[in-house]
Write a structure and sequence with these properties.
The complex is a heterotrimer of chains A (312), B (535) and C (297).
Chain A (H helix, E strand, L loop, with lengths): L1 H29 L5 H8 L7 H11 L5 H13 L13 H36 L4 H14 L3 H15 L15 H27 L2 H8 L4 H28 L3 H7 L4 H10 L3 H29 L2 H4 L2
Helix pairs in contact in A: 1-13, 2-3, 5-6, 5-8, 5-10, 5-13, 6-8, 7-8, 8-10, 10-13, 11-12, 12-13
Chain B lengths: L2 H19 L16 E6 L15 H7 L4 E4 L2 E4 L2 E6 L5 E6 L13 H12 L10 H4 E8 L2 E6 L6 H5 L13 E2 L2 E6 L8 E7 L3 E6 L12 E6 L4 H9 L5 E2 L10 H9 L3 E5 L4 E7 L11 H9 L3 H8 L5 E2 L22 H10 L12 E2 L2 E2 L1 E7 L3 H15 L4 E7 L1 H10 L4 E5 L8 H5 L8 H5 L4 H13 L3 H18 L2 E7 L2 E5 L2 E2 L16 E2 L1
Parallel strand pairs in B: 1-12, 19-20, 19-21
Antiparallel strand pairs in B: 2-3, 4-5, 5-7, 6-7, 8-9, 10-11, 11-12, 13-23, 14-23, 15-21, 15-22, 16-22, 17-18, 24-25
Helix pairs in contact in B: 8-10, 15-16
Chain C lengths: L1 H8 L1 H18 L1 H4 L31 H37 L1 H15 L3 H12 L3 H28 L2 H8 L4 H37 L11 H9 L7 H34 L3 H15 L4
Classes of the chains: A mainly alpha (312), B alpha+beta (535), C mainly alpha (297).
Chain lengths: 312, 535, 297
């Protein structure tokens, strides 16, 4: 069956990608200018480091073996979600990264849903009213919003809604209300892109022969709209699939602004404290998630659009 | 896109601008802080591992959960978990009579046996505690009676009680929390004897401490303290204005969460008060005298930097006068620190002369001095979480430039800076002396400790002499000898200009107006929360 | 060229083009335009309001904001342009090799591109900063490393379709060398495509780099950069919100102008650009390309 074969093919393509990514992440840590053993000891706040302590730590970490052996060992332990320990806190990396990943995922999903809802609504309205005042102003607003630095926008929004109106929490992830501001900022900065995609796909739909033909034959408008809606649902699903990985990797600035306990905050903090195991695991986990979501979205797209399966 | 869109765009842009601009006329505070009976403080870092026998945890948090045998106060060493003590005439045996009826948070009794287990747990991990000289002097710890315990040292050591008073490592954890008989590989719980117990901890989000109702010193009045992780700067300010947090203080790394100006405006708005301690420490730039190939190995360069810093302006403009300029490593009110030392004020001319003499010259119109083809370029690390350090760094960068020195600034997390200090991977970094309870003895002892100031002091000409004197002063039993030795030590590091003082720092806290009983300890690392109450 | 005249007709696009050109010139000749030295500290003028001498006032070290804004063009716009040009150059070269010669080189290059594109841009940039440390150069390096694959891929598609045209086949038949064909026949026609994709990346790159500087991972003090200026302004956002305005508006104006111009370019080229590709592929690329090319800060 064509679809089944496509899925297998697509998954098979992504496997070597994942391996390459993992190797890259592994090498990344090897490039770090610090001796991990020493770093670990310092991170634990050990005030006086002796050479015996370093040797002991090195042996414990198995750092005296050849690169490839270490890579394989590392890879196997990564599959078991064992990414080593943080240099700074000494805790297992996954105990920090796991919850952060989940939090970022939550933020991403809510944002993507908001983006889809907004861009579908506005995209449809604008397509139906192409060239009219509504269309132009919505496009104009989105155009401006996409050109705005999100942190600048965020500062304005926080100041207005949190401080001025005292409606929403300024930061953190304590209640469902905490979602509103970060999601708004992400939505505003990304909706512009997806809105354009949806609008133009709606427009091309509108101009397709059967719509024109249907209209010409006096098919009721409601039927045509229904057809258009079904079509836009398809677009929505495929955009949804594409947006998740993109936004998953782009929440860094917003997370830091709103102190969202996610991957973006964690990664910047780790960079500033040179906590390499976390940086490494962060790159690995996000890149892997990116590949997996992309594969998934390609498969969904192919299921929706049989033409896509043939080539590739 | 056509003209209409363009008009719309510009209209939007203008309205956005107006929206932003009209915010400037009032910064109203909506703090609901007044009705609170609990404190929520903002901290730039998670409380981390609360194990009292290791160094990763937040000291203020450890300070309210755990206690030591004795306390270091303004009036000297006072009783804490030990009600009284005897010292044998030879200074080698300390007998402590423990406070009775004290229990750990998990209900376990605090007794001689618990003291023995804890101190032994610390001693079993000796290599990590070598910065505390006491850890190298303890021979044994013996249970004499249910509430009497004896500490035997290899030789007399005058700072024994001072070091036992420190927040860590000689603090007491319920032996039930020990994992496989010790604490060095982690613990199973964080039950101390202190006024607060840790009841909830969400890494990188918050930690909750609740009052210990059966605290031996009486139940604290502030029933709940929450440490909320927030980045410094305007996020914290916002949270304060909204009442999401209602308490901030200079943290254990010397980081003020707020700009002086912002704090002042907040206090003027009416809901908050600012309380400052007396000068507690000296904020300084630590210079690595032992880094091969770095210009700061030269005393002349270090001195020139010292002369190129305008402390008056830093004190006046950056700190609005809340911190005073410092000209010596320890201010004269610190024990043993009343020593006559040469004052090096802001004097670019002298700085330039020193550099010329040392062979650093300005060649064909360049702004940066060179010597033997290499530039006079130095890196200064500052805490990325401290707005005041960043401003100071930038200001110092601009004045040393006038002496032909290029200063590169790198902002990092405090843990990374501590790591640089320990590995010697730095030219210069911001630091501070350890506070009244630790100055001068612990700070000076740290000159020899690799994790602290070993790299700072090791490159100077008379390093060996310095280390010998430090070792001597710690075991000296004669007050007059100690005085002379400390004077020598302070003179050596002053002349070598390895610790460049900037200002005398204090602990600053912003608290709700209704909070009373605010006081400070002899250390910048802890606050006596148990004495505070709401009116 | 036709496109230039076509854009010339769109007055707004022409204004944008002029604006961007003016910004670039101002940046290059910053010392001529800036009224003061950008790093000159006057502590007594800390947070001074705007005056005749300092049009936009002074920052937390009493430095002239206007001058810093002008010097800030260099890292915020000019250096981004340089990084963009390098990655476009790499992308074009490899895209040409892959699209023109096809075969093994193509297959290998495209696999490499797949791998590069499977790392989300932000994550890679953070990884590079994580290893090399914070700094403008490191972010630019990361940009070049990341973006070329993206350009190579699109340019390959564009080159492929021109390679199939009759006149190229004819040129080949009469024995014109490959290099000559590429330079004389393919490069001129694919240049507009290259212009469109690079201009559409330009705006988002400016936003991203200012975002990193805003987080403190970009340029280091004392150099002026717009994102960094916003970061410094943020610390006093409530007492002096006006400091947020100048750099913020500068970014918005420049990015809007670039995006607008990029759109105008695309519209000017639209018929050719959209119809000549295989229909589904064109659509899929249009769908997939936007989000990747335009990661917003």
């Amino acid at each position: 069956m064509a679809m089944g074969r496509y899925i297998i093919k697509r998954v098979l393509i992504s496997l070597p990608l994942l391996v390459t990514i993992s190797f890259f992440s592994f090498i990344l840590n090897q490039l770090s200018p610090l001796d991990p053993a020493e770093v670990i000891l310092h991170a634990q706040g050990v005030p006086n480091i002796t050479s015996e302590l370093i040797a002991e730590t090195k042996a414990r970490l198995g750092m005296d073996q050849p690169l490839l052996t270490r890579y394989v060992q590392w890879f196997v332990s990564c599959l078991q979600l064992d990414f080593g320990n943080s240099y700074v806190t000494g805790k297992p990396v996954w105990s920090l990264l796991g919850p952060a990943f989940l939090n970022t995922l939550k933020l991403t999903l809510v944002s993507v849903i908001a983006i889809i809802a907004l861009s579908i609504t506005l995209g449809t309205i604008c397509a139906l009213r192409e060239g009219k005042w509504v269309d132009k102003s919505v496009r104009g607003i989105f155009f401006l919003l996409t050109s705005m630095p999100s942190y600048w926008l965020a500062a304005l929004i926080v100041w207005y809604f949190s401080v001025k109106l005292d409606l929403l929490p300024t930061s953190g992830m304590d209640t469902y209300q905490s979602y509103i501001l970060p999601v708004t900022v992400i939505t505003i900065s990304f909706a512009g892109i997806y809105f354009r995609i949806i609008r133009s796909s709606m427009l091309s739909n509108l101009n397709e022969d059967y719509v024109l033909y249907g209209r010409a034959c006096g098919l009721p408008e409601s039927k045509i709209t229904l057809h258009l809606l079904r079509n836009s649902l398809q677009v929505a699903i495929s955009v949804f699939g594409m947006a998740i990985p993109v936004i998953l990797g782009s929440t860094v600035v917003v997370e830091n602004l709103f102190v969202w306990p996610g991957l973006g905050t964690l990664s910047v903090k780790s960079i500033l404290s040179r906590d390499f195991p976390i940086i490494q695991a962060y790159v690995l986990v996000l890149a892997a998630a990116f590949v997996i979501f992309n594969t998934f979205s390609d498969i969904v797209n192919a299921a929706l659009n049989p033409k896509l399966r043939k080539d590739h | 896109m056509n003209k209409n869109v363009a008009i719309l765009l510009s209209a939007l842009l203008i309205s956005m601008t107006l929206l932003a601009a009209c915010g400037s006329n009032k910064t109203e505070s909506k703090a609901k802080a007044n009705k609170r009976t609990e404190l929520v403080y903002a901290t730039a870092k998670d409380i981390n591992d609360m194990n009292p026998h290791l160094y990763a945890g937040s000291i203020p948090a450890q300070g309210i959960v755990y206690e030591s045998l004795v306390e270091n106060t303004k009036d000297g060493i006072t009783p804490m978990l030990a009600e009284s003590w005897d010292i044998s005439p030879d200074g080698k045996t300390y007998t402590f009579y423990l406070r009775k009826g004290v229990t750990f948070h998990d209900g376990e009794p605090f007794n001689a046996d618990a003291v023995k287990k804890n101190i032994e747990a610390v001693q079993s991990n000796k290599s990590k505690h070598s910065w505390i000289k006491l850890s190298t002097k303890i021979v044994s710890i013996n249970v004499v009676a249910e509430h009497t315990v004896q500490l035997v040292l290899s030789e007399a050591y005058y700072p024994t009680l001072l070091e036992l008073a420190m927040t860590r490592p000689y603090a007491f954890l319920s032996p039930k929390d020990f994992s496989s008989g010790g604490t060095k590989d982690g613990v199973n719980g964080f039950n101390g004897t202190g006024p607060y117990k840790l009841t909830e901890h969400q890494t990188d989000q918050h930690a909750v401490f609740e009052a210990n109702e059966s605290y031996w010193g009486g139940a604290p009045k502030v029933k709940k303290i929450t440490a909320k992780v927030l980045p410094t700067g305007e996020t914290t300010l916002l949270a304060l204005q909204k009442g999401e947090v209602n308490f901030i203080f200079t943290d254990d790394r010397g980081t003020d969460s707020l700009d002086v100006q912002a704090m002042k405006e907040l206090a003027d708005s009416g809901d908050y008060q600012i309380v400052r301690s007396e000068p507690m420490n000296t904020k300084m730039i630590v210079v690595n005298s032992s880094k091969a190939g770095s210009p700061v190995q030269e005393t002349a360069v270090r001195e020139a930097i010292w002369y190129s810093i305008d402390r008056e302006t830093i004190s006046k403009q950056i700190f609005n006068g809340t911190e005073t300029p410092a000209n010596t490593l320890f201010s004269s009110n610190v024990n043993y620190a009343e020593v006559e030392l040469k004052k090096r004020g802001y004097d670019l001319e002298t700085a330039n002369k020193l550099l010329e003499k040392a062979g650093w010259i300005l060649e064909n119109g360049s702004k940066i001095r060179t010597k033997a083809g290499s530039q006079l370029a130095i890196t200064l690390y500052y805490d990325a979480n401290s707005p005041s350090q960043k401003t100071e760094a930038e200001f110092i960068q601009s004045t040393v430039q006038k002496s032909g020195i290029r200063l590169e600034l790198v902002g990092e997390e405090s843990s990374s800076i501590a790591q640089r200090r320990a590995t010697g991977d730095y030219d210069m970094l911001f630091n501070q002396t350890w506070g009244l309870a630790y100055d001068p003895q612990s700070t000076i002892a740290a000159f020899t400790s690799e994790s602290s100031y070993f790299h700072t002091t090791n490159g100077i000409a008379n390093a060996t002499e310095l280390y010998t004197k430090i070792n001597k002063v710690m075991v000296s039993t004669d007050e007059q000898t100690r005085k002379l030795l400390y004077a020598d030590i302070l003179k050596i590091v002053h002349d070598e200009a390895v610790f460049i003082p900037i200002t005398n720092g204090n602990v600053t806290l912003v608290a709700p107006k209704s909070l009373q009983g605010i006081s400070f300890k002899q250390t910048q690392y802890e606050l006596p929360f148990e004495r505070m109450y709401f009116q | 060229m036709k496109i230039v005249t076509r854009i010339g007709k769109d007055k707004l696009a022409a204004v944008c083009l002029l604006f961007i050109a003016a910004i670039l010139v101002t940046g290059v000749f910053a010392p001529l335009f800036a009224p003061h030295a950008p790093e000159e500290v006057h502590m007594e003028l800390r947070f001074a309001a705007s005056s005749w001498e300092y049009w936009l006032g002074n920052d937390h070290l009493g430095r002239c904001i206007l001058s810093r804004l002008i010097y800030g063009i260099r890292p915020s716009v000019l250096w981004v342009l340089v990084a963009l040009s390098i990655s476009v150059a790499i992308g074009t070269t490899l895209g040409f090799i892959a699209g023109y010669f096809r075969g093994k080189a193509d297959a290998i290059l495209m696999r490499v591109c797949d791998i590069m594109l499977s790392f989300p841009g932000y994550v890679m940039t953070l990884a590079v900063i994580g290893i090399l440390g914070a700094g403008l150069e490191n972010i630019l390096i990361a940009f070049v490393l990341m973006k070329w694959a993206w350009f190579a891929r699109i340019i390959r598609t564009s080159v492929m379709q021109y390679t199939d045209t009759e006149y190229v086949k004819f040129a080949k038949a009469i024995g014109v060398s490959n290099i000559n064909i590429m330079i004389k026949h393919i490069l001129p026609v694919s240049l507009p495509d290259i212009a469109v994709i690079s201009s559409s990346s330009f705006g988002s790159m400016i936003l991203q780099i200012s975002g990193f500087s805003f987080l403190g991972l970009g340029i280091q003090a004392p150099h002026a950069e717009w994102g960094m200026m916003l970061n410094e302004a943020r610390a006093v956002m409530f007492s002096r919100p006006e400091l947020m305005l100048a750099p913020g508006i500068a970014i918005i104006l420049v990015v809007s102008a670039i995006n607008f111009l990029s759109d105008a370019l695309q519209i000017a080229l639209d018929p050719k650009l959209m119809t000549s590709r295989h229909k589904w592929q064109g659509k899929a690329i249009a769908l997939a390309s936007k989000p990747h090319g335009k990661e917003v800060a």
